[in-house]
Amino acid sequence: MDPELEKYRELFSLDADDQLETIRQMLPKWEVEPGSADLVKNLHRAFHSLKGISATMGFSDIHALSQRMAVLYDKIRVGLEKKMDVNKILKPGDFGGEGKIAAGSQSLVSLVAELSRQSLEELEKLVRKHTQAGN
């Protein structure tokens, strides 16, 4: 394997691991405190960072999933800045076919949290796949 490429894979892996850890830590806190602009900003920033670093590396699958999540958290961030109720910021259509999410009686906070957990699991698998030597 090209030593230069391996160096960048290692850097990607370290940064991706940091962002995934931020999501793991912030998500349960946000579920308890969905009106916290700081928690939403941290979640948005982590997904946005994953989007950027994966695009740089050419990992389109990680980029696409991170982009979808960054957009959701950005909508929430903007809504909170406008003093909106979190459950009224997003609409069920914002989840269009994502994971196992379907509109129902669950609050949108619960839907976003479940989608975030599903996305986190998928992102962890994709990061491992892309950072293994020889891929």
Give a structural overview.
It is a single chain. It is built from five helices and no strands. Residues 99-105 have low confidence and may be disordered. The chain starts with a helix and ends with a helix. It is mainly alpha-helical. It has a single domain, classed as HPT domain (Four Helix Bundle (Hemerythrin (Met), subunit A), Up-down Bundle), CATH 1.20.120.160. Helix content is 75%, strand content 0%. The longest helix has 30 residues, at 3-32.
Annotated CATH homologous superfamily: HPT domain
Give the overall form. elongated
Total strand segments: 0
For the record, the count of structural domains works out to: 1
* Chain-averaged pLDDT: 87
Helix content: over 70%
Structural class: mainly alpha
Largest sheet: none
List low-confidence stretches.
99-105
- From the alpha carbons, calculate the radius of gyration and give it in angstroms: 16 Å
The CATH topology annotation reads as Four Helix Bundle (Hemerythrin (Met), subunit A)
CATH architecture: Up-down Bundle
Summarize the structure.
This protein has 135 residues and is mainly alpha-helical. Helix content is 75%, strand content 0%.
Give a quick set of tags describing it.
135 residues; mainly alpha; single chain; Four Helix Bundle (Hemerythrin (Met), subunit A)
Topology:
Elements: H1 3-32, H2 37-57, H3 60-81, H4 86-89, H5 108-131
